[in-house]
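Hi D.,

Good news: the full-assembly prediction came through. Inputs first.
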Amino acid sequence: MRNKLSHRLFMTGLALLAAAGLAGCAEIQQAAEGVARNSGNERLAKTIRGGGTLIGGLLPIGYDEERIIGQAIALQVVARYGGVYDRPDLTRYVNLVGRSVALTCDRSDIDYRFAILNHDSINAFAAPAGYIFVTRGLLKTIKNEAELAAVLGHEIGHVTQRHILDVIQRSKQIAGVAEAGLAYAKTNPDAFKNVIDGAVKTLLDEGLDQSKELESDRLGVIFASRVGYDPAAYETFLTRLRTLKGDDPALFKTHPDFSSRLSAVQSTISEQKLPATGILLADRFSRAASGAL
Amino acid sequence: MNRRHPFLASLIFMAAVMTIAATAFGETLYVSAKSAQVRSGKTSLDPVVANLTLGDSLDVISRNERWLHVRTANGIQGWIYATYVSPSKPAGGDNELAALGKGFRRTDTSGVTASAGARGLDKASESYAHRAGITQQHRDAVDRMTASKIPDEEIQAFLKAGRLGEYAE
Ligand SMILES: [Zn+2]
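Then the structure:
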């Protein structure tokens, strides 16, 4: 009797597990595990849970894990880009602009923090969990607060859309992640390091998919516009970058060419009817940047 | 639907339609900003009558372009800047799947994130820094970044000085 029940439970468990695997439905699997455990079959529960590590790797990464991944990537960004530029007033200003934009972004429940990289190149990066960087070179290229707001909005967009986490989850290295979960940072630091190094390579060397960049361009201008900045400022900024860098993909391998980006921004402004508020705040930007760049 | 119970099926359908209609009529909105103020009038100069946070629900009484006349869950009436609300409840934090994923990955976050929340780098990131040979100077930079806080009032003052958000015009 007990054996028969066990067997039936086992078959049910397997069927549920198969369904969970096929449909990616974790609830089914958890239910199966619960059924097995409640019936006193700890071994079966463990088997089902064992399959769960595989599925666990495919489930979204939670915020606790995201923060650790974000910090590790941020450490690499700082190390690769000459450290943080030690100008507390300017850093505070960038944070005020960035956090104002983040206040009404599509993921306003998490903290966003901004730092300036002591580097001449024109660049900006976003690591998961809201770690956002702009280079000194980028700030030199920017003419007003509305441009800065849209640039920071673009980076905030990468965070709200979890772009880097998506790269990590799609990477083959996920096998290592799925095996041990967040604890892998502690128990299997080599696997964790591989995951981070892969993500950093994508972020700094190879660049994200063009679709992710264009999505962030659209979000950047939308988020900045929600606060009241004039969306045309981002067009002006991208046009200036195109003049500076050109549309040569070799020169700008980590982003789509500026013409595609400009047309994405222009269509977003018209489709979303983003208001031309005329708010650029060039004076406030100049005051904050004067003598600091 | 069940062919043997067409009556029951249509009853369920009607109930569903009525539920949707009722929701549209009462019009409940949710705070989509990290924090938001309800004011006694429809300008940013009017005094704050309620402070709300992400996900709080509101009933709409009437609309006036950029401002909405609303009633909070506590029954307080006032005006809120339209950009701060959305018709859908914001997800906020981890969704159920992310929470489940954490469970499946047998996460013991207690040890790993002991220093989380309050300030500074998490232990796991610290040990990564050590392993990856990140200098102390660079660790301190990300540590400071993690710990840095700006009070809400200062961000509001910054928006106000720039005539941004609800302080426009
Ligand atoms: Zn980008």
